[in-house]
Amino acid sequence: MVICSPSSESSSATSGRAWIIQALVAGAAVAVAVGAHAAVYFKWFRKGRSRVVGIIPARFASSRFEGKPLVQILGKPMIQRTWERAKLASTLDHIVVATDDERIAECCRGFGADVIMTAESCRNGTERCNEALLKLGKHYDIVVNIQGDEPLLEPDIIDGIVRALQGAPDAVFSTAVTSLKPEDGLDPNRVKCVVDNHGYAIYFSRGLIPYNKSGKVNPEFPYLLHLGIQSFDSKFLRIYPELPPTPLQLEEDLEQLKVLENGYKMKVIKVDHDAHGVDTPEDVEKIEALMRERNIS
What's the N-to-C CA distance of the chain in angstroms? Predict the structure, then answer.
């Protein structure tokens, strides 16, 4: 047994205190270094997703509404109204229309839009955006896929999904949802979405989700309606066409499901927006009536 003298105990205590102080100082230095590194990383990350292009994919041969981009909405082609709304977004460095149809291209050039011609073989708007991005020949970090059939889309929604993707380093995709009207609950043209507690998408469906035991729309439940606009990390967009189609994507005919089924994360923002997409010829009259009501010329 070793018995410490008072002096050795004092010396030991002093040494212990010194060691603790040194450890705290060292720990603080490490914390500062790590914090500085993290700050640099996130500054780099935000800078790394700073250049943004908006692409409006448009095709003439739609099974539900042929020639839809060129339909007149109070005297202007719908594609022009969408382009004019997108021009008001503050986060977009450039906007182009991507189409496989010369009639659409000629119309767009007529009102001043830049046009990229893409192949008829593009299976969806995302693949058309990817081809347009490659043909642009310029570097962009984020690509916003702007649906051409939302002529009343708010520019703030474009800015919102861009900033959501810039602020979510673990996501490759961002989109927006709004409140679903109960009468649209069973409409397969209105795509529904469910999200987790951190604002990431869990699933999208043409059916009602969540679906309760009664089999009826619950007017008290806050169902979410997916707005077609979405943004991609440009690096992910380049590999998206190489990913094989997935079962859920094919069954629901929703391209965003291929993103989720392959394990990628998708950030979702909730916005207050009256969705007024044009899916059928009958929707044109509804849009025009609403625009007259709001004095939109």
Answer: 96
Question: pLDDT per residue over 107-131, tens digit each?
Answer: 999 999 999 999 888 888 888 999 9
Token pair in block for residue 98:
């991507």
CB atoms within 10 A of CB 196: 9
Quickly tell me which residue has 């625009």 as its tokens.
291
Tell me phi and psi for residue 116, to 5 degrees: -115, 125
Six-digit token string for 214: 């009664």
Contacting residues for 111 by C-beta, under 8 A, at least 6 apart = 77, 80, 83
Q: Which residue has the tokens 């009343």?
A: 152
pLDDT in tens, 148-166: 888 888 999 999 999 999 9
- Reduce the DSSP state of residue 169 to 3 states and report it: coil
| 225-254 residue pLDDT tens | 999 899 999 999 999 989 999 999 999 999
Residue 137 token pair = 């020949």
* Plot region of 264 (φ>0 → left; ψ -120 to 50 → alpha; else → beta): beta
Stated as kind and residue range, the H or E segment containing 31 is helix 6-48
Q: What are phi and psi of 192, to 5 degrees?
A: -100, 160
Backbone torsions φ then ψ of 110, nearest 5 degrees: -65, -30
Decide if 193 contacts 225 (C-beta within 8 A).
yes
Distance in angstroms (rounded) separating the CA atoms of residues 98 and 55: 7
Contact predicate 191/226, CB 8 Å: yes
How many C-beta atoms lie closer than 10 Å to residue 103's C-beta? 12
Residues β-bridged to residue 227: 176
- Cβ(158)–Cβ(273) below 8 Å: no
Nearest alpha carbon to residue 278 among 84, 77, 113, 135: 77
